[in-house]
Amino acid sequence: MARALNEALDVALGNDDRVVLLGEDVGSTGGVFRITDGLLERHGPSRVFDTPVAESGIVGAAFGMAVAGLRPVAELQFLGFSYPAFDQIVSHVGRIRNRSNHRFTAPLVIRIPYGGGIGAAEHHSESNEAIYAHTPGVKVVVPSSPTDAKGLLLAAIADPDPVIFLEPIRLYRAVKEEVPEGHYTVPIGAARVVGEGTDVTLISYGAMMRDVIWAADVLATDGIAAEVIDLRTLAPLDHDAISRSAAKTGRVVVAVEAHRSGSLASEVAAIVQERALYSMLAPVERVTGYDTVVPLKRSEKHYIPGVGRIVAAARRALEA
Amino acid sequence: MALEFLLPDIGEGLTEATVVRWLAAVGETVRLDQPIVELETDKAVIEIPAPRAGVVLHHGASAGATVPVDALLVVIGEAGESWVGGGTPAPSPRREARAEAAPIVGTLEEAEPSAQAQPRALPLVRRLAASLGVDIAGVNGTGPGGRITRADVEGAVIAGGDVERVRLSPTRIAISKNLTRSWQEIPHVTTYATADPTAILRARSVGGTMVPLEALLIAAIVPVLQRHPAFNATLDGDTLIVRKHYDLGFAVDTPDGLMVAVVRGADGMTVTEMAGEVRRLAAAARDRSITIDEMRGATFTVSNIGAVGGGYGTPIIPYGTTAILSVGRAVDRAVVRDGVVVVGKEMPLSLSYDHRVIDGAAGRAFMAAVVAAIEEAG
Amino acid sequence: MDPLRLLAVDGRLIGEAPIGLDETLRLFAAMVTARVYDRKGSALQRQGRLATYAQFEGQEAAQIGSAVALRPDDWMAGTYRDAAAMWFHGYTWDKLLLGRMGDERGGAPPAGVNVLPPSITVGGHMIHAVGLGWAERLRGSDRIAITYFGDGATSEGDFHEAMNFAAVFKTPTVFLCENNGWAISMPRARQTSSETIAQKADAYGMPGVLVDGNDLLAMVAATREAVDRARAGGGPTLIEALTYRMAPHTTTDDAGRYRAGEDVEEWRTQDPIERVREYLKGAGAWNQAWEDDVSAKAAADIEAAVERAESLTPLSPDAMFDRMYARPTAVLEAQRRAVFRDEGGGA
Predict the structure, then answer these.
(1) Per-residue pLDDT reduced to its tens digit, B19-30
(2) C135:A91 CB<8 A
(3) B355 is catalytic
(4) For chain A, how many structural domains are there in total?
């Protein structure tokens, strides 16, 4: 996935000279995860900028650039370091179109690596993306595959509205697949049915997709046909895809590594009962992290849901 | 046109203010935005500027008084204009600015997603169906939007096994509704008696034609009703409406069920006229040409169940009346006359009456009078 | 640091005038007009026709004297107190009034007017002027960006980040601090222990200039120099304009609770409009009748703007859904339908 993202940025920089990249260590180092590797060399110092350590400044400057007509792609190094920029995102990035009645807009992308499972220090494993999904005026997108990563990032850059682009850290190097060359986009706001099924629906996004697909395979060995859905966009959620599948199978398991209360899993459950209550055969199962600070490396595996918990939840739904 | 200026909320949540002093007296000419009054709020003392130029016609409150928000503060108009309180106010600038939004045509509600593979039923109902062994897909839903309700599932259980579901006809549904209402609201008491039908049965064949028994029964009962007005009445709340007109209903058996046809003004008819009317109505009921008006508004009902072989019964009082008489088939019985058992004819009578209005004694008295009238008929 | 001053308090010219008398008359008329608007804003609030109004009385020279140095297409990012500068740079009274009336249509200045709607959060907008100027430079244009903020805003972390970015990337950004002595009830002396705000520029590696903010001519001179420097590629400048907030923080504030009336009266003797009037009188360029005409015209223009703003067709109940994205999302459309379903269509 890291290479797919790099390709997307390279294509964008090449196609549209309004695109600029900025962030800490994105230039000469190529980014701490090497996502922007080689881009400074290829596109030059007037397209790729290393900034001081100032998340609020990065997003605020990118905001000004976007209002002036550029298409900035700002990077914040970890979701856990995005909090200083939260004010700029909520107070200005998401609001300027509304505040100026369409006169000024902010077509920028904020790329943020997120999620745990890499045994890093505190603040490096956050998954409270619900905070951003709850913010009017921004879109929130998260790929789970290299193909989606490249297409969604190119779509985000082309979007006339601000997009927060979450990158699942533990998938950067772990998933590899052939990715189409050149420019293509994956639509924002559309979930993807990864595999069709009739007995239970498994919904997730980002790094959890791997475990969800694995869980579907495990269930298949018991003759249970699970339908797997990758949300891909967290705001706006694809209500139709969610409710269509829920109505079809009557049983839904939604898995996220986020804190449980107020998570996107809660929102999915609300949509299911709103649009498909009469088809439900069991309560919606939420497989989530907990309302605790994400524990450090030694206890991380007890927090982040794994395939076992997903399978158990699916079985509970089938026995209800 | 004078401007009646109401005190606005100028302090982010202000509810009232006190007048410290007026800076412009009644009758004084003021410029637009000229300070006209000093008010004290819980935050500060502030001056209010005139919302229009003109002459101050009225102070809404005097110095020291408290003015609630949205109460009249001052009236400003033209020189020479007089202002009388309570007239149609010209809206203050703020009110004008708050005109209603232009009406927007509402948009249609979004339809349910079409891929509803499962029948509509709440999870609770599904669980019930499962526990009762009912296949929910085969249950007819009578809930909102065709939803399958708990009652639907339970009904499916009762129906159990090989069943055919027959929908009631509208007529039967209407009859059913009326009977339910009568039964639920009226405390029924039924009292029984027998009458010697000899006279009345003989009166049936007069001049070659058969007089319908219903006509003779009605003719016999009308005088009794005139003497026992509570039986020809309607109970309306706590008022008994005693009817002075005698529209007697009689039961007609039709393929669609028992119908009541009404002979209007039975007290003013001869037996012959009554017989003709009874025949006409019965025929109309059977061929369904009878009108609603001809079926409505009976003040007392006689039901000849003897015509279909009935004896005693527990007739149900038609809603809106206080009594009903059911007359059964006359049969031969061993009776005691002058101390000797002889064969006598007996016509069973069943009288149901509204016990809220008619007590036992009155019921028995009426019945006795009816028996006497029947035995003297002809 | 001594503040730059070209006009003495009594109106005598004590330096070289950066502008001729005609231009001075034009700016004087603008200041008089702005004050008419300021008074009207307060009156409208007292009449319940504006929700809250933030007066800028006393700061007319600081705002107009700096705004005049801009080119019409230069960017401006200011605060809720900078109505005079925004209007002078093209924002229109109508739009300013609509904004204070709580109508989002007030956030859209006319085409070609590059003034952002005012920032309400303190200090968050300075970095925007950095990004705006930076983008213009990257695109090869010589437009610059000016940002107005108060003494209070210099305490926000975003001030530091904006100044730092501007100097590091040498963006064409002019930082104009209107030090009006107060951040609601907090006096400048307790907002920062620095002797001046202008000297903070040194720490970031950019020039800092201290100016008498009530001296129209000094403001013009200082801002022009900073704007020219930025336009020529010389990077950002911080200007601290010493002035005074003559009125309370807003119409809901009671300044008497925290400051002495004597201070206000003292500053009234340094009124910026009076100072220029004396200067013009001394040059034989002013007369009462002319100023009365200016005031009368201002009052009429502003009255007409109030009327237009108040009689604008009200927003429909679902207008909020159309302003969030370029096109409303399916989720928003579903929510929009609920507005009519639940509120019965337009009430």
Answers:
(1) 999 999 999 999
(2) no
(3) yes
(4) 2
